[in-house]
Each structure stands twice: as C-alpha cells, then as structure tokens.
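Researcher: Next sequence.
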Amino acid sequence: MDMVYLALAGLFWLLPVALVKGCERLQRPQARP
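Model: Next structure:
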C-alpha cells in the first residue's frame, strides 16, 4: 500500500503546482523579462 500512498501524495502535490503554472501562463502569456 506504500506505493499507492506515494503515488496519491505525489499526484496531489503536483496537481496544484501545475494548476498555478497554467494560471500564470494564461494570465501572463508574455512573461519574458
């Protein structure tokens, strides 16, 4: 069951990060300095 727990934990940890990056990209399509 450890593998399942790690997989779920990793998924729930990466989901918000990807969501935030996607939102930032949509808000600022030209965010190049």
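Model: The chain has one helix and no strands. The radius of gyration is 14 Å.
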